[in-house]
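S., here's the first fold you wanted:
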Amino acid sequence: MTSDGGAEHLDPAPARLTVGIVSAGRVGSALGVALERAGHVVFGVSAISDASVHRARTRLPDSEILPVEDVAARSELLLLAVPDAELAGLVRGMAAARVVRPGTIVAHTSGANGVGVLAPLAALGALPLAIHPAMTFTGHDEDVARLANACFGVTAADDIGYAIAQSLVIEMGGEPVRVAEENRTLYHAALAHGSNHLVTVIVDAVAALRQALAGPGLLGQQLVDEQPNGLAERLLAPLASAALDNALRRGQAALTGPVARGDVGAVAAHLEALEAVDDRLAAGYRAMSLRTAERAQTNPALIELLEGRSDGSEIA
């Protein structure tokens, strides 16, 4: 009760939206599940490939599989979860066909694009949003669970759009982060560098470890083969996990190892050993070592070696 004796004022429940998704890929289907759990109704999805049809039927069994134009025409919230390269063409096609009603919230999940790509639909009265989950999606059950720990890069045309985007992300369990329109490409590049290239570094390191561990092992030790999640991965996992955790917690102070110490002899030996395995692997090591040496402002002789201006023989 309130102090004046009246019933306590209760805020109305947030409006539930009728949601359509184009398309039922890994991202779209995961966000669809999250929106349904928040109380929204995903009435329909577009799905063309066998994999998309399967995801739609298993993750969103109450949703119809419909043509794109039908999904667009019936949506209050239209989620465009297509690859970056397909987004602009899809938007132009829907605008030309005038299948999106004025007032429809149109949100895409592209990291590289802001709301500018949605201008053809905004000109017809749609409310444009860019809502990008900063997370990798595998198509498995863990995708939805990971959204609870993910940040979403959001961009909108005005404060009303930002408020709607923020509410949607929070409802899905994520943390909204505002990204200016002009910074979307830089935002996307940073995420790609920190995630995609991390995979390359780890896979390269595992390949080198498999070579280093080849041959007879200890009694009862697993043989080294090409299968994932083997001995090489188990050897690397605690070290790589600790390095990632230290980097996120302590920044550049987390740098350790021969490059950070400026040990020219050790790094030259590393390059020789890696070149014997794979020239491309050695080239990747050299490039990352040079960037590490620059960050650490380490021994100038090491930078000369990594830039190819010396061979390190005088120090080895």
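And the second, which I think is the more interesting of the pair:
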Amino acid sequence: MSQPRRTSRRRAWTALTLPALLCALAACSGGPGDDAAAPGPSASPTPSGPPGTLFDNFHYSGADDPSLAAHGWEVRTGEGGPGIKDSWSAAGAGFPSDTTAQGGRVLQLRSSTDGTKQGTKQVEVQSTGSTLFTGTFAARVHFSDKPTSGQGGDHVVQTFFPISASDSSANYSELDCEYLPNGGWGSVGPRLDNVSWYKADPPDRVSHTLKQHLEGWHLMMITAVDGKVTYSMDGKELFTSSGKYVPREKMDVHFSNWLIDLPFAGGTRTWDMKVNWFYYKADEAVSQADVQKTVDGFYGAGTDYINTVPKS
């Protein structure tokens, strides 16, 4: 991995429209279901289900849906990096219908720029509470090789990654799946970088790069058990790290769509990354086939959200 460590986030997150009452309900269910125009009026207790499991298919009405925050998700609106600093906006987070998605709904992360810092908006959505450690992380993600609108060529980074709550933690942990359709940091694209971190500053990491166009839907998985981390895509193993390059503390999971730099000005362009669903199983290595079977079961039962991961 030739690119440098991303700029420290200086995490300043805003949980949108989260009344104080809902702060105590971070593990609840009761999303708005299939009716995007009607967010749930209140949160109900977490449904019973397999222990150590987190699943969400992002059936929310918008970034200000109270159920989104109640289910432990935040949309970033704070300052800092990576990419174009202080350009994080909730405007890029949406939950539209999508006929190509399982269940017909997605989390859409739309970044946009006109080539100036003032005209740039990046987007990131993360889980909260730092409850995810070893086990299986899986997400069905749609990567884009071309902008949804405007001229191509931006150095965009479309990412799915678990990471420590603090970049300066003594037990810093980060596991990256980063797709760069046009490359960046002096490299050419397309490229998918899988990176296991031991320390953020100075950078201490191991990585693997797959040079391949990835336009479309992919099942991305990170399995961290028994002293090793395995990255896979659509059931094919890509990279394994071990030794000190494994999780050492609990993490949050992030979905992010951001721009490394601003290579040219003139004309607004938008880049979309989509997430169909996210699944986590604590302390177990789950195969791609079994992940999909479990997710199919949740969809078949009408389960939009479940969280039975212990808090501590």
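Why I say that: Helices lie at 66-70, 288-300. The two ends are 34 Å apart (CA to CA).

Talk tomorrow,
H.
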